[in-house]
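Run: sequence + flavin-adenine dinucleotide -> complex structure.
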Amino acid sequence: MSDTRHTKLLIIGSGPAGYTAGIYGSRAMLEPILVQGIEPGGQLTTTTEVENWPGDTEVQGPDLMLRMEAHTKAMGTEVIGDIITDLDLSKRPFTAIGDSGTTYTADAVILATGARAKWLGLDTEEKFKGFGVSACATCDGFFYKGQEIVVIGGGNTAVEEALFLTNFASKVTLIHRRDELRAEKILIDRLEKNDKIEPLWFHELVEVTGTDMPLGVEGIKVKHTKTGAVTEIACKGVFVAIGHAPANELVIDQLETHMGGYIVTKPDSTATSIPGVFAAGDLTDHLYRQAVTSAGMGCMAALEAERFLAEQE
Ligand code: FAD
Ligand code: NAP
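>> structure
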């Protein structure tokens, strides 16, 4: 059944940015509606330990996000399990269409749609996705007990995934296109101490190989970035961890973007190029992309939305 809901403040996204915006928006008596999207809780629900959320020496990502959801609800935000499929920012009130059939109209919108895993774009990567190729170690690592697997990438995600996968795999090869990791020192230190992980420098994935019936990975081909020599490595799983791209598809034609699709916001602000539309978290942040910075921007966005709405009245 289709219906229309009006709200002063619509928050799109349920990661740290969206939930924090909900807390501040509720305390400003804006009675926000927050639409969670396909991944309630956002990216942190795909990881295990989070060690840099202030106040918790260690907390599991999914637990932290459940706590944030409960906090947002307790403050008064209406949290809705829906996905926005279309957003019209050309006139106020802004209009968002939900996958459920609900139309949301809003006087102000906070975009907090975050980021999604990037893929290499190989045909064979696509072919084996879900059948040996994954971008989420916490989701799929369990299937590789006693197997040899590879992780592609050199950032925090790649190193964390490699470390986590040693809980299941007999050997993890970390394949990076350079010989220097982008990951934080504490993670590199743990990687170097882990006997199950073997780095392979100056290599990139060129092909995933395997069987068709049943569909499954048996190995990969990697190319040396300097010599061009191609080598085969036997493995049952391939975890691609080469970064994230902003989830901007709702607004790519409506808002200014830069640095590969991140939403441009005004200096020291979350205001976008359209008055009344604010962007927070990984959607706009090409530099830090952390839970705590996303939460900080969610706070800013709600405070700025409150100011914007007060000026309209
Ligand atoms: P996200 O967490 O990306 O959430 C985006 C939200 O938008 C989701 O809820 C999604 O469902 C919703 N959404 C998207 N499109 C729509 C739509 N059309 N309609 C409705 N909703 C939509 N950071 C740290 O600080 N510490 C860590 O230890 C850490 N570990 C990480 C481990 C991994 C494996 C990954 C991938 C990231 C990690 N990060 C970590 C980074 C951190 O997760 C992100 O910086 C943070 O989650 C960004 O928050 P966000 O609110 O901007 O968006
Ligand atoms: P990232 O920091 O952007 O690193 C991506 C890695 O993949 C880089 O090493 C990059 O190589 C490599 N890469 C990119 N494109 C490639 C390609 N086409 N082929 C081969 N390799 C490629 O991404 P991330 O590790 O996902 O981290 C994203 C953000 O989340 C970061 O801000 C990170 O700090 C944060 N995060 C934090 C934590 C934590 O705090 N514990 C955990 C996970 C993520 P180059 O180095 O050569 O560019």
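>> summary
Residues 4-116+244-312 form a domain with the FAD/NAD(P)-binding domain fold (CATH 3.50.50.60). The CA atoms of residues 3 and 102 lie 5 Å apart.
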